[in-house]
Amino acid sequence: MNWESRLMMPNGLKAQYQKAGNTRYYKLVPQPSHHTIVDKVE
Predict the structure, then answer these.
(1) Percent of the chain residues past pLDDT 70, beyond the cut
(2) What pTM value is reported for the model?
């Protein structure tokens, strides 16, 4: 499996994809996310 066949989600899991012909597609649902990258920065 190469890097082009994977899509990582923020929770660390790999997103599932479906194939139609010779094309891979992902069904993604946008959701707000709140991550602390650096403490005390807003």
Answers:
(1) 83
(2) 0.41
For residue 8, the one-letter residue type is M
CB 17 within 8 A of CB 9: no
Kindly give, in sequence order, each residue whose CB lies less than 8 Å from that of residue 24, ignoring residues fewer than 6 positions away.
5, 17, 18
Q: How many CB atoms lie within 10 A of CB 7?
A: 14
Three-class DSSP category at 14: strand
SS3 5: helix
